[in-house]
């Protein structure tokens, strides 16, 4: 026994990456274990019931799982854990959702007591209809998502054999002229298509849009794409026109300003969740066409109401795209149960190693508060504390120093607080993009940044997502949304697109020492640190001295 | 066994016992230890005690199923019964070879246990056992048989009996006794009864079929239907009470083809193997689990290091504290209860006995911690094996509906050690590396020790074999606990676990190769097989077994590592168990995030601060990490340590018992300069403040002694900081197992007891040469009913001479003795030395060397020559 894997009693698996069998082992455990952390030496996977059930759904049985663990494990695997795995996997498939020729959607069981147990649940009762026979009960078709989600919570996941509707066919081809899907993108599309529905996790800059395009080319049907904001919608459109056989006319935009419904329609979450007089007026979009595929961009941001709508769309293929499936609200499991299990996941460092994203140098710069600032910080109201320390004056000096240091390169300064950004913009002589900036103005600024006409751009959190700034090589974060891990990852993603000259990317996070800012920063960095991005820590004095 | 051959058939149990040899008596006493607490004076008393209800019930409860079935069959057989009759009852008319093969062993076992005595032609069940097992309306027999014709017709009018005789075609007789006998004989005759039954309508036979396997009682209306009337007329059903009829035993036996039991179970059900793993895998898994067990116990104790949860007033741990412990250990509550009880049973935790009672580690814990891992485990496993406390019942309710709390009272289940040992022994009987099918294991245990009530249910077929009885539950707990503890791995007994129960290293081929041949074997069973009754190992044997287990386990533990892997996400991974010192330091410097084969640590500002608090400097920590890391120390970690160290210690907190405040600096200077003040431990904190280590009273005293006139200040300003210290109970003994009944005696005790009984018996029963003084009329203090019953009387000179002669010849003497209270007794002694008016002798009656003043010896007599 000298395998690369250590099975912990809390069901985490530690994989020693430098071990010669590490790659084999990774392949063996990937179907059922979630990669949780991927720092430099030891990667951590976690075995969860959801992961085990997904493995069952993908055709793996308990024996394979146990074999994989036992074979690669360095130490004997606790018997209780093996038993638990077998028992958990055994729970899957006792209940099946399927189409009945006469009764429509039905829930059937191979184990009557299980059916009796779940039917007793108060949460299941309103979702089911008449009992057809002792082993079968009718389910209202619109409750397909809801009942799956509830059964999952009850610990009796249903196998969904009811299938998908094909939707209205529409020819879509990838236009691979001079470019091709990268191997991992192909793999992601394949995994997704094979699984029917699910989530693909790829680092920022790794080309998630193309995975979406690839999936559409597979589906060859009308597609609804849900994105976070209008700028992002435009970029999707731009990218689809460029990369597929679709033309401008075939792609509609459904947003606050435009309400086009075309074979491929790109809608924003915001417009879908607009409420007027207690109703969602734009919900009909889901029914406006016979969509064959629904793509959820940035699925980690999926607003709660969309979960509810999604529950009603279980008969359509669903593809979720994200860089970081960490939700600060902990609703990851809802994403998995409603959109589908994770179908593809690649550690950031692996993609980096393949050269598809730029290597990044992450630096946390710690600035000291002055004595008067410290006193003011200590006496500040609790809710003001973070704002106070995040916008300290010293940060400005450091930011300026960094900007000077990378003069000539494309630099993004990202922050949370408008006052701070305005002030920075003023001192750096750079334009500021914030919530009130019009879309036209934004696109204009982005374009001139792309062209290199301006080299420094100060952006608020409105630019957090899906703005495509290919030539940004340095990002300086001066403040953020408290401890949001995915925001940090998204921001790093701004600089990860591979540089034409193979330049290294730089990501600076300026943090006020010994304050809340530092605590939040530690939390924010956790995801990236777990992805193998090692932050260096520098003192502000060093940065300022380097300059001197 | 020369005595057996020459003696005639014994006429009582006492006589039967008297002719048994020492080995055979030892076997009896070993399996029924209650018989020698206290040691009976002679065999008659032993026999009487063996016939008491409590003792018989105890013995019956400890029989295996087939022996019990045999006893039950004997209880429905004529008394005495011949071996042949018994065999017929057990095997039925068509003989069952398995029964025939197993019966001699069962009979021998019953004989050994003194439940059955008499030769094969006259087997007698001890009367109490017969009363317990024989059917009666209140206690239906497990056999489902009813009373005999004779018993059932006891209250019947002679006329009615004669009518029945007529109905079945027998000639009438003069009296009821012979009539009943004739009827009984008829029913016992298969051929004639068959003819009788053949003449009945089918409905009637159906009625009989319903009653045949019991319960044998049925209800009839006042005016029974014709088919019932036919049965009643022929005596095939006999009335017992108005409206109730019973199927007489003879008829039932006829219908059952002679079998007393529907399903005789002569062969113990085998324990089936569910899966077989390679022994190495089993041992490694068990060792891994053993290591985890140690870690868990240590973690628990660490959690409680500065004082554990408080003790409930009724004793034990509150449900909330159990929950909290379960969360802390990251296990379920029953498992947490197991760990708690394990630590408690091993004497590692106890209540501290203070006014505000709390649980805490005992001093024994500190010793235990110093042991090598394998020995630490052996201590735990040894304590677990013999404990009567059963964590499995925690959370349940006792007879008074009080919740049973962990570490609380009423958790003792006396059967636990024996069941535990038996379960492991059965596992040891499987091939190496095989895990058992739980059901078959439980079935085997039930066969070995059937519950008398449960069995009846089985036999009447009214229910599935139930396995929620206490023994089965204990067995199931044993299986899961053994796995947790690492006694088993992947369900199979591992080598250390095997050693723990003292089983041989590899399973023996077959346990039961030598069966007694034929029915005539009178040899007590212990000559043939390992007794099912557990022979409790002596403490010495147990210590040897645990030592062997520890020795076997030690090499299975992975070598402790001296390095960890540090990562930039501020974690450290120890890919295996760490050396003690490294683990201790790391445990302070970082928080444990995940446990198992490896340990994942996370460095946080809090954890680094903890290390600095523990007196380490940042440089120490850097050096420590650099020394133990295989890879370069990540920059963020270095930074973290420096950053925390930078702020550490800027504020200073110290402990002072008292202070001196004075507006005049000069006075304080004066005090500090005074040599006499040195004992007060004064230190200047500020120009006008001195801190003192002495308490305020001593400080006042001291300052006054120097010549100052200090005044005490109110306590509000006083700073008292006590250092948190490891909290320990006073020395505490681990809880003793609480067995029901006396402990199984060891060989020494058994031999001594037998000698004592025999000697007493000798004293009570041997014919004696008439002593020179002749039988006196002295008080008879001996209640053993010795023949003669009087004390020997001889003159002092005679006594002395006889004693001295006996010292030379080494002969035993029979003496009369009056003790200081004036109670007279008879004793058999072998004098060793006579001097100074005392005789020092081996007293056979008391089984020890005693010294008697000669003047209290009433007289002495030699033992008759044939006393053997």
UniProtKB/TrEMBL annotation, chain A:
Keyword Aminoacyl-tRNA synthetase: no
Short name of one Pfam family: ERCC3_RAD25_C
InterPro entries: ATP-dep_DNA_Helicase, ERCC3_RAD25_C, Helicase/UvrB_N, Helicase_ATP-bd, Helicase_C-like, P-loop_NTPase, XPB/Ssl2_N
NCBIfam families reported in the protein's UniProt record: repair_heli_XPB
Residues annotated as domain Helicase C-terminal: 397-548
Family affiliation: Belongs to the helicase family. RAD25/XPB subfamily.
Listed GO MF terms: helicase activity
Keywords tagged on the record: ATP-binding, Helicase, Hydrolase, Isomerase, Nucleotide-binding
Principal EC category: isomerase
Domain Helicase ATP-binding intervals: 189-343
Protein name (Swiss-Prot/TrEMBL): DNA 3'-5' helicase
The keyword ATP-binding appears for this protein: yes
Enzyme Commission number(s) of this protein: 5.6.2.4
PANTHER family: GENERAL TRANSCRIPTION AND DNA REPAIR FACTOR IIH HELICASE SUBUNIT XPB, RAD25/XP-B DNA REPAIR HELICASE
Origin species: Streptomyces hyderabadensis
Catalysed reaction equations from the record: Couples ATP hydrolysis with the unwinding of duplex DNA by translocating in the 3'-5' direction; ATP + H2O = ADP + phosphate + H(+)
């Amino acid at each position: 026994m000298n395998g690369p894997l250590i099975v912990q009693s809390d069901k985490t698996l530690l994989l020693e990456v430098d071990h010669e069998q590490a790659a084999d082992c990774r392949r063996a455990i990937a179907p059922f274990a979630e990669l949780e952390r991927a720092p430099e030496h030891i990667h951590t996977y976690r075995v969860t019931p959801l992961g085990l059930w997904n493995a069952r759904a993908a055709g793996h049985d308990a024996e394979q799982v146990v074999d994989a663990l036992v074979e690669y494990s360095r130490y004997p695997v606790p018997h209780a854990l093996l038993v638990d795995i077998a028992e958990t996997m055994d729970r899957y498939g006792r209940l099946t959702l399927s189409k009945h020729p006469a009764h429509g959607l039905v829930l059937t069981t191979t184990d009557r007591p299980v059916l009796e147990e779940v039917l007793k649940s108060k949460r299941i009762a309103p979702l089911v209809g008449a009992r057809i026979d002792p082993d079968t009960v009718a389910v209202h078709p619109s409750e397909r998502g809801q009942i799956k989600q509830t059964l999952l919570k009850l610990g009796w996941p249903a196998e969904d054999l009811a299938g998908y509707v094909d939707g209205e066919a529409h020819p879509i081809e990838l236009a691979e002229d001079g470019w091709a899907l990268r191997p991992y993108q192909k793999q992601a599309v394949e995994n997704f298509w094979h699984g029917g529905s699910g989530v693909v996790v790829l680092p920022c800059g790794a080309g998630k849009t193309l995975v979406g395009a690839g999936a559409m080319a597979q589906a060859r049907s009308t597609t609804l794409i849900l994105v976070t904001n209008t700028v992002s919608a435009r970029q999707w459109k731009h990218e689809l026109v460029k990369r597929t056989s679709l033309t401008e006319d075939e792609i509609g935009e459904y947003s606050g300003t435009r309400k086009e419904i075309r074979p491929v329609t790109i809608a924003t979450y915001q417009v879908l969740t607009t409420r007027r007089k207690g109703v969602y007026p734009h919900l009909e979009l889901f029914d406006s066409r016979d969509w064959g595929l629904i793509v959820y961009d940035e699925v980690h941001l999926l607003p709660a109401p969309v979960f509810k709508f999604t529950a009603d769309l279980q008969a359509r293929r669903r593809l979720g795209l994200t860089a970081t499936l960490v939700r600060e609200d902990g609703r990851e499991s809802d994403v998995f149960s409603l959109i589908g299990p994770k179908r593809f996941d690649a550690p950031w460092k692996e993609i980096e190693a393949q050269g598809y994203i730029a290597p990044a140098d992450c630096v946390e710069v710690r600035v000291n508060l002055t004595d008067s600032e410290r006193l003011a910080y200590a006496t500040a109201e609790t809710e003001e504390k973070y704002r106070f320390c995040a916008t300290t004056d010293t940060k400005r000096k450091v930011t300026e120093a960094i900007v000077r240091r990378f003069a000539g390169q494309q630099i993004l300064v990202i922050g949370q607080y408008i006052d701070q950004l305005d002030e920075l913009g003023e001192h750096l002589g750079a334009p500021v993009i914030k919530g009130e900036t019009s879309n036209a103005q934004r696109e204009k600024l982005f374009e001139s940044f792309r062209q290199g006409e301006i080299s420094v751009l100060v952006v608020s959190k409105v630019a957090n997502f899906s703005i495509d700034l290919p030539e940004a090589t340095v990002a300086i974060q001066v403040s953020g949304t408290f401890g949001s891990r995915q925001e940090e990852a998204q921001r790093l993603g701004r600089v990860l697109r591979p540089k034409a000259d193979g330049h290294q990317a730089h990501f600076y996070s300026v943090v006020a020492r010994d304050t809340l800012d530092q605590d939040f920063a530690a939390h924010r960095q956790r995801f990236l640190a777990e992805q193998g991005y090692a932050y260096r820590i520098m003192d502000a004095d060093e940065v300022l001295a380097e300059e001197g | 066994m020369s005595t057996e051959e020459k003696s005639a058939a014994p006429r009582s149990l006492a006589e039967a016992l008297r002719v048994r040899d020492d080995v055979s008596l030892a076997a009896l006493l070993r399996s029924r230890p209650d018989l020698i607490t206290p040691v009976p004076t002679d065999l008659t008393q032993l026999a009487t005690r063996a016939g008491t209800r409590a003792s018989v019930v105890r013995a019956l409860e400890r029989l295996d199923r087939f022996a019990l079935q045999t006893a039950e069959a004997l209880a429905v057989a004529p008394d005495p019964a011949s071996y042949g009759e018994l065999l017929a009852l057990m095997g039925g008319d068509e003989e069952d070879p398995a029964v025939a093969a197993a019966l001699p062993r069962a009979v021998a076992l019953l004989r050994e246990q003194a439940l059955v005595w008499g030769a094969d032609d006259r087997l007698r069940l001890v009367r109490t056992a017969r009363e317990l097992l024989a059917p009666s309306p209140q206690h239906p027999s497990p056999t489902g048989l009813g009373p005999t014709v004779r018993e059932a017709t006891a209250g019947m009018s002679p006329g009615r009996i004669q009518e029945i005789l007529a109905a079945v075609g027998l000639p009438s007789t003069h009296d009821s006794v012979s009539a009943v006998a004739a009827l009984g004989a008829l029913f016992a005759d298969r051929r004639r009864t068959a003819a009788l039954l053949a003449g009945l309508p089918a409905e009637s036979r159906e009625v009989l079929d319903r009653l045949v396997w019991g319960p044998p009682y049925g209800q009839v209306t006042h005016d029974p239907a014709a088919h019932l009337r036919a049965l009643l007329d022929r005596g095939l059903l006999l009335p017992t009470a108005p409206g109730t009829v019973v199927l007489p035993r003879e008829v039932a036996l006829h219908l059952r083809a002679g079998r007393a039991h529907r399903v005789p179970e002569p062969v113990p059900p085998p324990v089936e193997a569910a899966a077989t793993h390679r022994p190495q895998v089993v041992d490694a898994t068990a060792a891994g689990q053993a290591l985890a067990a140690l870690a868990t116990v240590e973690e628990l104790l660490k959690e409680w290091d500065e004082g554990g949860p408080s003790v409930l007033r009724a004793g034990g741990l509150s449900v909330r504290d159990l929950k909290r412990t379960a969360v802390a250990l990251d296990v379920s509550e029953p498992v947490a209860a197991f760990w708690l009880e394990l630590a408690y049973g091993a004497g590692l935790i106890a209540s501290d006995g203070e006014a505000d009672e709390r649980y805490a580690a005992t001093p024994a814990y500190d010793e235990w911690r110093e042991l090598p891992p394998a020995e630490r485990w052996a201590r735990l496993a040894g304590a677990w094996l013999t404990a009567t406390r059963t964590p499995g019942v925690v959370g349940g309710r006792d007879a008074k509906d009080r919740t049973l709390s962990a570490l609380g009272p009423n958790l003792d289940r006396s059967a636990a050690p024996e069941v535990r040992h038996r379960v492991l022994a059965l596992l040891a009987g499987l091939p190496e590396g095989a895990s058992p099918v739980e059901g078959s294991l439980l079935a085997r245990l039930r066969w070995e020790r059937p519950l008398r009530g449960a069995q009846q249910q089985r036999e009447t077929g009214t229910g599935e074999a139930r396995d929620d009885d206490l023994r089965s539950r204990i067995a199931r707990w044993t299986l899961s606990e053994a796995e947790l503890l690492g006694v088993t791995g992947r369900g199979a007994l591992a080598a250390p676990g095997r050693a723990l129960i003292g089983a041989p290293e590899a399973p023996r081929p077959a346990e039961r190769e030598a069966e007694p041949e034929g029915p005539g074997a009178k040899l007590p069973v212990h000559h043939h097989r390992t007794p099912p009754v557990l022979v409790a190992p002596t403490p010495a044997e147990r210590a040897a077994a645990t030592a062997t287990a520890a020795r076997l386990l030690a090499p299975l533990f992975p070598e402790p590592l001296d390095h960890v892997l540090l990562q930039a996400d501020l974690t450290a991974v120890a890919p295996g168990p760490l050396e003690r010192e490294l683990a201790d330091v790391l445990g302070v410097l970082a928080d444990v995030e995940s446990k198992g084969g490896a340990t994942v640590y996370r460095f946080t500002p809090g954890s680094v601060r903890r290390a600095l608090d523990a007196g380490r400097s940042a440089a120490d920590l850097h050096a420590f990490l650099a020394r133990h890391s295989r890879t370069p120390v990540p920059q963020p970690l270095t930074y973290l340590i420096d950053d925390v160290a930078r702020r550490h210690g800027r504020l200073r907190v110290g402990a002072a018992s008292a202070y001196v405040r004075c507006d005049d600096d000069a006075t304080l200077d004066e005090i500090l300069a005074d040599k006499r003040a040195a004992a007060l431990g004064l230190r200047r904190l500020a120009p006008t403040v001195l801190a003192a280590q002495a308490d305020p009273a001593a400080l006042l005293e001291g300052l006054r002694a120097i010549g100052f006139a200090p005044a005490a200040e109110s306590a509000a300003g006083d700073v008292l900081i006590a250092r948190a210290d490891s909290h320990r109970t006073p020395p505490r003994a681990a809880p003793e197992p609480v067995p029901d009944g006396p402990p199984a005696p060891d060989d020494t005790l058994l031999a001594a007891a037998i000698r004592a009984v025999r000697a007493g018996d000798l004293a009570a029963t041997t014919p004696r040469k008439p002593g020179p003084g002749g039988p006196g009329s002295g008080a008879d203090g001996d209640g053993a009913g010795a023949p003669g019953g009087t004390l020997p009387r001889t003159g002092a000179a005679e006594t002395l001479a006889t004693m001295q002669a006996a010292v030379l010849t080494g002969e035993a003497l029979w003496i009369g003795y009056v003790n200081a209270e004036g109670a007279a007794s008879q004793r058999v002694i072998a004098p060793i030395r006579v001097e100074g008016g005392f005789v020092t002798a081996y007293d056979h009656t008391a089984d020890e060397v005693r010294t008697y003043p000669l003047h209290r010896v009433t007289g002495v007599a030699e033992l008759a020559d044939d006393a053997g």
